[in-house]
Design goal:
NADP; 10 helices; single chain
Amino acid sequence: MSATDQVHLNDFPSIFSLDGKVAVVTGGSRGLGLHAASGFLQAGCSKVYITSRKPQACAEAVAALNALPNKKPGAQAISVPADNSKMAELDRLVEEVRKTTDHVDILFANAGATWGERFETHPEMMFSKVMNLNVKSVFYLVQKFAPLLTVRATRDEPSRVIVTGSVAGLGVGTLGEHATFSYSASKAAVIHLTKSLAVELGPRHILCNAIAPGFFPSKMADGLISLQGGLKVLEDHTPNKRLGRPEDIAGLVVFLGSRAASHLNGAVIAADGGSHLKGKL
């Protein structure tokens, strides 16, 4: 056993700590992104940048995050509104972040969209919108943040990219009157993209992993939950008999950003209580 290995074993109490880390969370003003940002701050991050398309939503999220009682003294959430679907906005996002930090340790690519409509009328415009935001913009987000992610990254202290996929990208998503063809295809694509990025960026000491959430009550998911029969029906279908909670996402992304996950690269972690293993309702 090397001296470095022994030090890490002796330092086990800090294995899940994000003390002093800098994180960027896209789609961070609500839902899974907000849960993740809350986890990052409470696990020790010194700065968590929140970005989404709506400035007011970002401001409200940052106010709530900065009021958290468990964050470290001086730790702060910072609002940087940006439309991730536009390349110029991604460039501006990076430049805004550069104004207050010279590096980024964790990039959580979470911004996304969905559309539900039957096969015969599914509109090309919405198919393209979903694919562009859920796949293309993730690639360019990582590409543009890569210089900041490499500043402090080393073999033993790598930076992290965490991408939000979906269990809809592991199997077949919603079909019928409210079919999510573009969403399911985009999540399968972004999961595969994450694996490619893991191999490309691993040698640069940037680890790339994906999460595949199932149903978490949120503004985007509540409509689909209702269409699937409601909360109780979905809970009964889930092996652990419940849907996702905020701490389930917060804990997962903190793990992926911490030293505990420093040998995970190209992994896809389903967070759905095992529902995808049972198939459709």
